[in-house]
Amino acid sequence: MNDTPPVSPPRRPVRWLLPLAGVVVLGVGGYAGWYVWQQQQNEQAAQAQTTAVQLKGLEATLDALRRDQRATSQRLQDAAATNRVLRDEMLGLSQRSALLEENLAKLADSANQGRQAVQRDEAELLLTQAAQRLNYADDVEGARRLYAQAATALAELPDSDGLNLRQALVQEREALDALGSGPRVQSLQRLDAVGRALQGLPSQITGTTGSSTAKPWWQAALAPFVDITPSRQNGPLTAAEQRNADDALQLELTLARAAIERGDRAGRNTALDRVEHWAQRRWPDSPALRAQRAELKALRELPLQANDAVLGSTLQQLRTQTDRR
Prior knowledge:
Helices cover 78% and strands 0% of the residues. It is mainly alpha-helical. Helix 1 packs across helix 9 (313-324), helix 2 (140-154) runs antiparallel to helix 3 (159-178) and helix 4 packs antiparallel against helix 8 (287-301).
């Protein structure tokens, strides 16, 4: 038997399937690639759309921020302008306050100076009245009251001006206290004492009242018939003459008081001389009469106004300070 070789299948279809498979594969790959590309494009489009939406949102936000910024800038500008206006007003208020304080200080200084000037004038007036009371009326008590009021007026002056015045015033008040009731009051008191003492003198002298020895024997022998009086003594006065002498004596005492009250030294001395003259005529010589004559002589020497150099020093210093001002 003849071996027949196996018949081999035809190779042409196989060769055709391979390109077909390749085409299919390429088609599938292309489709897959296209699909992927489409997906990518869609995703990119969606992302672009999202990005666009986000950009629009960002742009809207930026616009809002810009509007807010512009509004904030405008408010800041308005606030800055308001601050400038307020600062200017504050500067103006500060300047006005400084001017007001300066004016108030000037007013206070002027008021203080005015008050001090009034106090000086008041003190000068009081001291002038006190000096007039001392010089013309010898009113020591009234002068003391005026000095006390002047001390109150000078108490509020500053130490630069008032210290020396207050010290001088203290010295004056001490000198015024040393005067007591005043020279005229003292003279009047002593004159009244002389008048009372003269009225108490005896009209006649008996025994050894008026002389150191008794009458001689011849006077004692002639006494029942005649009253012998030495020529240096006054003769006996009748009752009418005694009344006239008393009246004249009282008149002269009144004139002496008036002269003392008005500070008339010459009138006082003249009246005291006539008082002594009428006393010698009215009463006989005796130690009591001589004592009153000595008192009348002492009264002629008394001053009728205060002559202390300290008095008036405060007024002089005050006027000197006023002239300097």
